[in-house]
Write a structure and sequence with these properties.
It holds the Pfam family DUF4139. This is Aspartate ammonia-lyase. By secondary structure, this protein is of the alpha+beta class. Among the domains are: 160 residues, no CATH class; 74 residues; 130 residues, no CATH class; 107 residues, Sandwich (Immunoglobulin-like). It is flat, with a radius of gyration of 41 Å.
Length: 719
């Protein structure tokens, strides 16, 4: 089997995962094309039923006939360890050396401190001995000199020891904060794909294969960047995206696309049923299904006769499994075909052998064509004796998870291989030909018939043959973390998930340039494309609510894409202004984006209220309201300001109240709300243009007539 190197070429990030595409180049060997190729290095979080293979370029007649998933173990030599791991080991060695030197200096320091002149107490009746002052002073000077030198050396070693501790912690944090794709043990477990190609003769040239698979643990959120000059006349809007992925595989130099669709949603063509009027008839037979031909068992008579005369296979090597201890109990009953039980250190699956496409993979994993060094390292990475129970649990969790997925776009009907299928009921699973397989010749109840393919059986066989128990926990942790939203870092402020802002349509955004996104579980910002939009600056004020003037800009979407809701970072000139939420903009739609308060525009509001009698006989009360606004421009450029007031509105069915607009200078108008804005009844707006340093006064008055015997609820004053 030929192992073909591949590179990750394109990634489409969905709302709940990612679809990755790898490209491999295949060349003929000795003038002939291989019938089986193997692509290794796939991420461990790969969804088992999502593999798709296609031919991008190649000679005529070359097709991909089958694809199967498995596992691959990479055992890098010592010189291929990551640089951070080697730096950590060197820092730990330096710390240990400095710690030993510090302890030795401390012992010398304590020993010197114990030195000093000692004076013996004379016995009774004896004269005291004479002591030389010169010797005592010389000893004291010697101790002072040596202790001072040791103290200086001790301080230097303690300083270097603290620096070594800091270096070790730095290396550890770099490994912890690094990518999960390069973090791991020295024996790393990956996924692998085995492709079966059509047989060709001697053909020249090369072929390019594309392998597509789905992974969990990837999300994206839309965002924007708005750059405008300080005069607010024009600007550019650029769409960005916040990406997070912890799939166990770094995306380096990939063609990135962002999709709002759900990755694991079925996309089958709906079947429209006809409604007939008349006598009831039996439902027509569904097309695409044919019963097995008669005499199917006679086709395998020669195979059965040859199998009965075949010699028994040789026993497996001793390094493959640990022998069971002798037992005095009765031997266990023979398992049924397809059942599984655990013996020794590894579970032994008593299932039929895999088809020819998977046999070379298993033989290679058992040691065929492998070096003695790889076998030796494989024995060293085996877990402790209690690992088989953990591996059984891991295999059980994996099989349950893969069976619950039902296959990516495959048959949702997953049946136990241990139970022979006596009768098949025609359903949607048996019409999904991509998820069916032809039974092997040594399966009497299945051979010659299409059956739903169990997605986990071959992978459990391959995993058992690999004898790897160290990285199974890491594999399951990566797959489990991909579905845990609570372990993810918080998203950026004002962000909205794509499925919430676009629940009724699916769209894909293509990033302009190739991008790098590490698999570290943190948010990364990438630039998507520059959106041509129309930007119209506005200054808006509602003096009756707030006398300050607010800046805003009308954003018109002139792109063929829908701009999803998300945060927009506004930059005026060279200074960052603020972050504001942008609503969803359909193509051609317009929305208003607030930019904060403009302190250089001042507005003051004065009101006056008069109440008088009116009508022919004085049976009515006239309430006159006068509003005067004064607006001043202290900017160095002309601006257009919109000021809004609200005139009282008569409730429907009320005939005793009348509202009349009296004098308005300059004239105002009823504003037109933008799509998505709630219209306000009785709202009026002035639009005035002010030159630098100019002031203008706006006046308006209206009359409210009510019966003299009544009063407005809350008071007649309405300004």
């Amino acid at each position: 089997m030929l192992v073909v190197p591949s590179v990750l070429d394109a990634v489409t990030v969905h709302a709940d995962g990612a679809l990755c595409t790898r490209v491999a180049t295949l060349s003929p060997e000795n003038g002939r094309w291989p019938t089986q190729v193997r692509i290794q290095g796939l991420p461990p979080g790969l969804t088992p039923g999502s593999l798709r293979a296609s031919l991008l370029q190649g000679p005529p007649g070359l097709t991909v006939r089958d694809i199967r998933t498995g596992f691959d173990v990479q055992l890098p030599p010592e010189v291929d360890l990551p640089a951070e791991h080697r730096a950590l080991e060197e820092a730990q060695e330096a710390l240990a050396r400095l710690t030993t030197e510090t302890e030795q200096v401390q012992k010398e320091f304590e020993a010197l401190r114990k030195l000093g002149p000692s004076f013996l107490k004379p016995k009774a009746g004896e004269a005291p001995r004479e002591a030389s002052p010169t010797a005592v002073l010389a000893l004291g000077a010697f101790l002072d000199t040596e202790l001072a030198a040791l103290h200086v050396r001790k301080l230097e070693l303690e300083r270097r020891q603290r620096d070594a501790w800091a270096e070790v912690e730095l290396r550890r944090r770099r490994i912890q904060e690094g990518s999960s794709a390069v973090r791991g043990q020295r024996a790393v477990l990956y996924r692998a794909a085995t492709l079966t190609l059509s047989e060709l003769g001697s053909v020249e040239g090369t072929a390019r294969l594309a392998l597509e698979y789905a992974v969990k643990g990837a999300r994206w959120l839309p965002g924007y960047e708005l750059r405008m000059p300080r005069s607010l006349d024009g600007g550019t809007l650029r769409m960005r995206a916040s990406l997070l992925q912890h799939t166990g595989e770094d995306w380096t130099g990939v063609k990135l696309s962002l999709s709002t669709a759900e990755l694991h949603r079925r996309a089958d063509v709906p079947e429209l049923k006809a409604l007939r009027i008349g006598r009831r008839q039996p439902p027509p037979a569904r097309s695409g299904w044919r019963e097995p031909p008669p005499g199917l068992d006679e086709l395998f008579a020669g195979y059965d006769a040859a199998s009965s005369r075949a010699p028994l296979p040789p026993p497996p090597p001793k390094a493959q499994a640990k022998p069971e201890p002798p037992s005095v109990s009765a031997p266990p009953p023979a398992p049924r075909p397809g059942s599984s039980r655990s013996t020794g250190a590894f579970p032994v699956v008593s299932a039929p052998p895999p088809p020819p496409a998977a046999a070379p993979m298993r033989s290679m994993a058992r040691g065929g064509g492998e070096s003695l060094r790889k076998k030796r390292v494989a024995k060293e990475v085996m877990a402790e004796p209690e690992a088989p129970a953990e591996m059984d649990d891991a295999l059980m969790d994996m099989s349950e998870e893969e069976s619950s997925l039902g296959g990516f776009g495959g048959a949702a009907l997953q049946q136990d291989e241990a139970e022979p299928l006596a009768g098949l009921e025609l359903g949607g699973g048996l019409l999904d030909y991509g998820a069916l397989e032809l039974g092997a010749a040594d399966q009497p109840s299945r051979r010659g018939k299409l059956q739903p393919q169990p997605t986990h059986t071959q992978e459990l066989l391959a995993l058992t043959a690999l004898h790897i128990q160290v990285d199974i926990a890491a594999l399951l942790l990566v797959r489990q973390r991909s579905g845990e939203a609570g372990a993810l870092p918080p998203p950026p402020p004002w962000t909205v998930p794509p499925r919430e802002s676009s629940p009724h349509f699916d769209y894909r955004y293509d990033v302009e340039a190739r991008m790098d996104v590490p698999s570290d579980g943190h948010w990364h910002t990438v630039s998507v494309f520059s959106a041509p939009v129309g930007l119209t600056a506005e200054y808006l004020c509602v003096p009756s609510v707030e006398p300050r003037v607010f800046r805003s800009v009308k954003v018109e979407n002139r792109t063929p894409h829908a701009l999803l809701a998300g945060p927009v970072d506004v930059t005026l000139g060279d200074e960052f202004l603020m972050s504001s939420p942008l609503p969803t903009l359909a193509p051609g739609a317009t929305q208003r984006l607030g930019l904060g308060v403009e302190e250089s525009l001042k507005v003051s509001r004065n009101t006056r209220f008069d109440e008088a009698s009116g009508g022919v006989f004085g049976g009515a009360t006239v309430l006159t309201h006068r509003v005067s606004l004064e607006v001043a421009n202290r900017l160095g450029r002309p601006v257009t300001v919109e000021l809004r007031e609200r005139v009282p509105v008569v409730p429907p069915g009320e005939k005793d109240i009348k509202v009349e607009e009296a004098e308005v200078k300059p004239p105002w108008r009823a504003p037109t709300p933008l799509p998505g804005e709630v219209p306000v009844e009785g709202e009026r707006a002035w639009r005035v243009t002010l030159q630098p340093g100019e002031k203008q006064t706006l006046d308006a008055s209206w009359n409210v007539k009510i019966p003299s015997s009544k009063m407005l609820q809350g008071g007649n004053r309405r300004t």
